[in-house]
Amino acid sequence: MTNREMEKLIKHFEDKGYMVHNFLHQAGKIPWHPFKDYFFPPKQQIFKYEKGKYIETLDNSKQVLLGVNVVDLKAFQLWDQVYARDPYYQARLKNTIIVGLSSAPKDKIAYKSFILSFGKDVLEHLRFDLFLCAPTKNNYHCYTGSEDGQKILDDLGYKDYEHINFIGPFHEGQLDKAAIDIREKLKNREVKKIWDDLGKRCIECGRCTYVCPCCYCFEITDDEKGNRYREWSNCFQHEFSEVAGDHKFIHSTAQRIFFYYYHKFVRDMDKYNMPGCVGCNRCSNACPVGIDINKVIKQIKES
Amino acid sequence: MKNEYQPKEAIIKKAMKETDDINTYWISFLNKKDQEDFWFEPGQFVQVGVPKLGEAPISISSSPHIESHFEITVREAGRVTKALAKMKKGDKVFIRGPFGKGWPKPQLDDHLVLVAGGIGLPAVKPLLDDFCHGYLQVKSLQTFYGTTHFDKLVCMRYFDLWRKETEVHITLDNQDPRWKADVGLITELIKKAKIYKDSKVFIIGPPVMYKFVIAEFLKKGVPEKNIFMSLERKMSCGVGVCQHCACGDKYTCKDGPVFRYDRVKDIPDII
Ligand SMILES: Cc1cc2nc3c(=O)[nH]c(=O)nc-3n(C[C@H](O)[C@H](O)[C@H](O)COP(=O)(O)OP(=O)(O)OC[C@H]3O[C@@H](n4cnc5c(N)ncnc54)[C@H](O)[C@@H]3O)c2cc1C
Ligand code: SF4
Ligand code: SF4
Ligand code: SF4
Ligand code: FES
Q: For residue A169, is pLDDT > 80?
């Protein structure tokens, strides 16, 4: 697909009423900002009470995410499970066209981190509508991953694409060996020293949660006008576990950072068969005191 | 798709004062079908919503066999519960739920022991009600209920019936001239009582109570797997997603609030 054709594609989306978020310039990089906002805004209205009645407020606006890297596409697989029965997330999903992007050709896409590594057939295991590969100066190689994606290209009269059949979210075996190992370590031992040390360094700023593409927790809040919202929360906030009467169930920084790891590598693994971490490293880059998830995981593995 | 966050409108049919800061409400759904469809198990809870303020998780305190309404007993603790305290018959509330796993269903050959501290009593009341009205059949039923002061006793209007039909021990931490029954900690009552070794024990109360009460039953020879406790945690979603109620690998709202002791006792800070 040439640049000219790309412009046509963007115009096509806009004509159909889509808001196009363009990340094509980020090919080959993991941007600092995760994509979760587009499905789960930091503060999202879920309904309102008007004259004492419930009124639904689903966001059905249409959007295109143009240029999502494979690591963040992987993170969507967690969200798809966590919010499988959530009408608000599903409404965003239904109205979102996802266009993946990689600077490498299909068979050369590679990503390796402490938690997951992608093999050759990575695209077969990701959910997207369109996927663009190897953008040289003026050329994208185009794949479709859904009927919606095929229809868009057909409408445009663009024929030079290949369809990829989604064969399920998981690579057989490989992803999960590393994750299972970490889970068992965390489950069987608390490895107290690791958390005590981190607890002394962490300043509970919560940045590692805002930038994490797999952090999805929230709090339900109401305002004085009768609107109900769902707002991002994070497990470093002291109110996170606080009940009436100022009683907290999580008391120390060490417990909070343990909770972060335990959620990602035990609870999410147990429930969704994948960890709440895709190894993007955003948290390490964001941490003002230099807590690096690679090192923490190494310590857990060696414990 | 069913929206788990969508509350249903309901009306307070009756509001009764229990103590200076605790009230009981009979609630029924505005829509008849919602009321007919509302089925729950003793030990489950609902999210009670007050527009502009929020929601509070509250245990259902009536028998599931009552079809016309359900009952909750609420202590004033913060914003939502204070607003509820001002509400009267005819006022509207918004209900989500029922949520969670309640008490395991008692069996015919169970010796059942209920232990409640403070505002925990309403969460076992459905079982007492069902027992007194013949819906619940067990080999024996013993109840231990303790609270701080005479003025903090809840469900007093049922005491006579319960005492008549079952073995009920009620104790106050502090003496009071109006009180003729036991005085002292609930653990003392348990110590003195004859408890079957194969009893099933259901416990609910303030956080400080669990360790001590459980220790008494273990001393009496009750196995860990026969001890069930209902836990309190901060809650928001009620459906196992928001993370606020998480404890180790469990979600209190979904895997609990009732847990079997041996299955969770190794989770740090669980009780
Ligand atoms: C499973 C369960 C059953 C309960 N049953 C009863 C009952 O039968 N009767 C009763 O009086 N109380 C019960 N509670 C406690 C009751 O939920 C709290 O007192 C109530 O949520 C306080 O809300 P608030 O808005 O008045 O207080 P605020 O302090 O203003 O609360 C702010 C928010 O924090 C959360 N929160 C605060 N305290 C608690 C808490 N203890 N548990 C969970 N979330 C909390 C709520 O989401 C609330 O919206 C129960 C709690 C749980 C978890
Ligand atoms: S590396 Fe850090 S930011 Fe990235 S997914 Fe894992 S926990 Fe989240
Ligand atoms: S790790 Fe903490 S901030 Fe992230 S989703 Fe879990 S509870 Fe929320
Ligand atoms: S970014 Fe670093 S300092 Fe801030 S909460 Fe996370 S681990 Fe703690
Ligand atoms: S209340 Fe949200 S996970 Fe339990």
A: no
Q: Chain A 119-178, CB below 8 Å of chain B: which residues?
A: none
Residue A92 has pLDDT above 80, yes or no: yes
Give Cβ neighbours of residue A3 (< 8 Å, ≥ 6 apart): A138
pLDDT recorded at residue A302 = 86
Give the CATH number of domain B111-264: 3.40.50.80
pLDDT digits (tens, 9 = 90+) for B113-148: 999 999 999 999 999 999 999 999 999 999 999 999
Point out which residues pair with A220 in neighbouring strands: A230
- If phi > 0 it is left, if psi is from -120 to 50 it is alpha, else beta; for residue B100 that is left
Q: How much is the pTM?
A: 0.95
Using a CB-CB cut-off of 8 Å, the residues of chain A touching B3 are 56, 87
A55 phi, psi to nearest 5 deg: -130, 125
Q: Nearest residue CA, atom 7 of ligand 3? A: A235
**CB of A59 within 8 Å of any CB in chain B?**
no
Q: What's the CA gap between B149 and B145, in Å, rounded?
A: 12
Give the end-to-end CA distance of chain A in Å, rounded to a whole number.
Answer: 50
B8-98: which CATH architecture?
Beta Barrel (2.40)
Check residue B79 and give its pLDDT: 94
In contact, A95 and A107? CB cutoff 8 Å? no
| Cα distance between the two ends of chain B | 36
Strand partners, B28: B11
What is the location of CATH 2.40.30.10 in chain B? 8-98
Q: What is the pLDDT of residues A221-256, one digit of tens each?
A: 999 999 999 999 999 999 999 988 778 888 899 999
Residues of chain B with CATH 3.40.50.80: 111-264
Closest CA to B64 of B85, B84, B36: B36
pLDDT of residue A113: 86
**3-class secondary structure, A163:** strand
Asked if B206 is an interface residue toward chain A (Cβ–Cβ < 8 A), one would say no
b (16+ CB within 10 A) / e for B207-246: eebbeebbebbeebebeeebbbbbbbbbbbbbbbbbbbbb
Q: Per-residue pLDDT for A191 more than 60?
A: yes
H or E element in which residue B224 lies: none
Give the CA count within 13 Å in the CB-facing half-sphere of A80.
15
What confidence tier does B37 reach under pLDDT thresholds 50, 70, 90? very high
pLDDT of residue B81: 96
> What pLDDT was estimated at residue A222?
96
CA A50 → CA A54, A78, A296, B56, B185, distances in Å? 7, 34, 49, 20, 49
Interface of A with B in 66-95 (CB under 8 A): 82-83, 85-88, 90
Is B205 near ligand 1, meaning CB less than 6 Å away? no
In angstroms, the CA B177 to CA B160 distance is 19
Q: Residue A59 pLDDT more than 60? A: yes
CA distance A255 to A235: 10
